[in-house]
Amino acid sequence: MLQAGEGHNNEHFGFLGGSGSEPRSLLVYCAAKSLPFHEADITSHGWSLTRVGTWAAARSYMDRMGAGVGLACLQDTTEKAVSDAEALLGYGHSRFRWVAILDLAFLKSAVANHLISECCLDFHVAPVDVPRLLHGLGHALGMAHLSCNRAEARSETRVEKNIIGVSRAIKATVQRIEKISQSDAPVLIQGETGTGKELCALAVHAHSSRGSRPFVAVNCGALPDKLIQSELFGHEKGAFTGAYQRKIGRIEAAEGGTLFLDEIGDLSLDLQVNLLRILQGGTYERVGGTETMRADIRVIAATHVDLERAVGEKRFREDLYYRLNVLNLDVPPLRSRDGDVALLARHWFEVFAAEKNPRVRGFSRDAFAALNGHRWPGNVRELINRVRRAMVMCERQLIGPEDLGLDYVEYAHDAGAEETLAQARERAEREAICEAIDRHAGNLSRAARALGVSRVTLYRLLEKYQLSPRSPQSEAPPARAS
Predict the structure, then answer these.
(1) Which of 11, 202, 403, 437 is the most exposed place for a label (fewest CB within 10 A)?
(2) Whole-number Å distance between alpha carbons of 99 and 109
């Protein structure tokens, strides 16, 4: 371990810079009138200080920063002061790292001890050892940048940031989206309710040549038959009672872009005829109008209905089905996406972090087992609802199966689903890693010790399963010898 005064040349961190580089930004949170150190001791080493006295001001600063480091001066042990410090340090910025300076009185508080251990990368007791503090700040900034770089690298390798998964099924879907995006032909997206059909349609649009033009969605199953024709085609003034002025329809609003027809299987046969005319000749008329309009749009339709069966039962026009089904995309149900359930659960845990019970840090191993064993009739939409509810209602640090409304015993003894030995090993390994990281608040050294592996091995496993620690205590991978 580094002693005071040793190894405090911060240039070896790579992104900290030496003399002549741009000042490094440091957020200093201190509610007291005076700081427990001399500003010159910090600014003379290339730091630019921004001091705030409230956690709201600090949060505003953090929102503007991509990656950064904060120095929290914690002295007051009153309930309000500790509550303010907890609101600040636990704000949840995965790209921000905190170092604390404490009074001994603060350090002796049990609540303060928990706060520092959970939310700070390092702490110092006043009076401050300046060389050691400088080293700690440099390390914290390096950690923040590493976290930022990893997040950017992950986003660059993802075709569509909202389509998350590592399973073969979802990878094949993403590859098909890439191919479909290169064409301008109609697309039919089929899949169960809650699988993310609209997200796939958005991805096709975003990566197509029409990506900069409008994406207009119409839920065919949510509009009455009397209104949907006006919604799609628009109407002229006086076309019917209540038509006091001309209205632009969704088709016209999507000019040059993409028209997404969700739940196309619920469209009436009469409207199917009008839609067929657009697909065949690219023309339509407003309701009550005589002018023939031309439509420069790409049509993407989606449905959970088996349209081929609907055609056989005369509930859907055969000619429209073949016009829509030029390119097709089947969105896989969540139960067939091996390895994605835990990944999605952790993703939505981060998305709704601001809503959760402050005591909740993650998922237990039993929770992951229950998540992986559930059949997910409501697919991703059901997963989101269960995770969001559990985050609010859970009274422990780790969410359990009962918080998710799932029965772990049922899944632990379920022999219905076949699984290869390799899949079972990978699933168990992934679950063990997730639980260890959650249990140790993202501290990878502790998680690695608990798992009985080195930090290097743990980082390789994180890359293998595309996992990433959330906590501010996450550590950077050890430097390799050059």
Answers:
(1) 11
(2) 18
| Residue-wise pLDDT tens digits, 49-97 | 889 888 778 877 877 776 688 898 887 777 777 777 777 776 655 567 8
Whether 168-332 and 335-464 share one fold: the answer is no
Best CA proximity match to 329, nearest among 193, 157, 166, 172: 172
- Domain spanning 335-464: CATH 3.40.630.10: no
Q: Where along the chain do its domains lie?
A: 10-157, 168-332, 335-464
Check residue 469 and give its pLDDT.
Answer: 55
The number of residues making up the chain comes to: 482
What average pLDDT does the segment 402-412 reach? 71
3-state secondary structure the chain: CCCCCCCCCHHHHCCCCCCCCCCEEEEEEECCCCCCCCHHHHHCCCEEEEEECCHHHHHHHHHHCCCEEEEEEECCCCHHHHHHHHHHHCCCCCCEEEEEEECHHHHCCHHHHHHHHHHCCEEEECCCCHHHHHHHHHHHHHHHHHHHHHHHHHHHHCCCCCCCCCCHHHHHHHHHHHHHHCCCCCEEEECCCCCCHHHHHHHHHHCCCCCCCCEEEEECCCCCHHHHHHHHHCECCCCCCCCCCCECCHHHHCCCCEEEEECHHHCCHHHHHHHHHHHHHCEECCECCCCCEECCCEEEEEECCCHHHHHHCCCCCHHHHHHHCCEEEECCCHHHCCCHHHHHHHHHHHHCHHHCCCCCCEECHHHHHHHHHCCCCCHHHHHHHHHHHHHHHCCCCEECCCCCCCCHHHHHCCCCCCCCHHHHHHHHHHHHHHHHHHHCCCCHHHHHHHHCCCHHHHHHHHHHCCCCCCCCCCCCCCCCCC
pLDDT, residue 475, reads: 42
Pull the structure tokens for residue 8: 């405090």
209-263 pLDDT, tens digit per residue, is 999 999 999 988 777 777 778 888 888 887 777 777 888 888 889 999 999 999 9
Q: Which CATH class is domain 168-332?
A: alpha beta
The span from the CA of 85 to the CA of 369, in Å, is 35
Backbone angles phi, psi at 226, to 5 degrees: -70, -25
